[in-house]
Specification:
TIM Barrel; binds iron/sulfur cluster; 328 residues; alpha/beta; 14 strands; 11 helices; twelve-stranded mixed beta sheet; two-stranded antiparallel ribbon
Length: 328
Amino acid sequence: MLYALQCYLTDYCNLNCPGCYRRAMAPNGAPDKLLPPSDIIHYVNAIRGNDKFEQAVVFSGGEIFTAPVPYLHEVIQATLDMDVAVQLKTNGSWVADARRAPAIWDMLKSLRVPRGLVATPEQVQECLRTMGGDAVRAARKDGAWYQALCDRLPTRPMLDLAVSVDNKIHPAQSVDWMRAIAERLAGDATLRDNISLKISAFMDNRNWFNRTVIRQGWPHVRDETWVNGQIMAFTYDGMPVYAFFSDFVDVPTIPVPVTDHVVFAGHDGEYLTPLYMHPNRTISFENVDTMHAVGRVSYVDAAGQCRPIKRVMKDMIKTLRAQVRGGR
Ligand code: SF4
């Protein structure tokens, strides 16, 4: 079975958006409860050997930047050091806040961020052909294989900052927060090298997005173009930015049946099972219709140690089946 991993670092958030599904998912959330770094390292390490694992982890909340900055540095750096990409999901408010932002930016700047290949399989093939047999064999022999490709093909930093921008769930000021973040990133060469800026937006919010982000953002915002039906690319002062549009789900109005919609197809069409780690040391699947945690179990044993991932998965599936049978 394939895995994707999302870590809820904290259930606490500084905002109180009316449509927030996390409030229903995390009734025991407390500002001081954080997902332990050693737990994250344990499970990332356990699944990164799976060659179908996407080699990327999402850190989400609540609002992750309400967590202490040294804690964030520890978990982000430890994950990057395992050569796993990290996406930081944020509402953007504290990253744009004049009082709180400096410590956050200093932390982001101090990270050692590896770069990952963004080449297509065709580009890799062409690169190998032009490198020639001897160079390829030498790179294989001394383990410099991946680096040899990175030196010749397009790469990007393995750290994304994904800011929510909309006026449906989040406050309309989210566009101002995103602008402040984009300006800071675009104006600092180290940060720009370390971080790719992403935007999470809603499909039925596109007119508002076009008006506020694109048209009002000019001349900083330029070159907007749709990559496909759900992704828009543009530049902010020359820095590439990607906006990902998803369908808006009014979660609080949806009843909460447990369904078997907890897996989705990965890029290659195989089923990918996203796992969600919670600060109270539980792990779950997530119902994709309601975004509620299902099949949720504790991942630690009586001594507080992380249990093997295969055992935890078995318990999750058992719990999920019982929930489906019980219609909860
Ligand atoms: S910013 Fe996100 S997590 Fe925080 S209240 Fe709003 S929707 Fe919920």
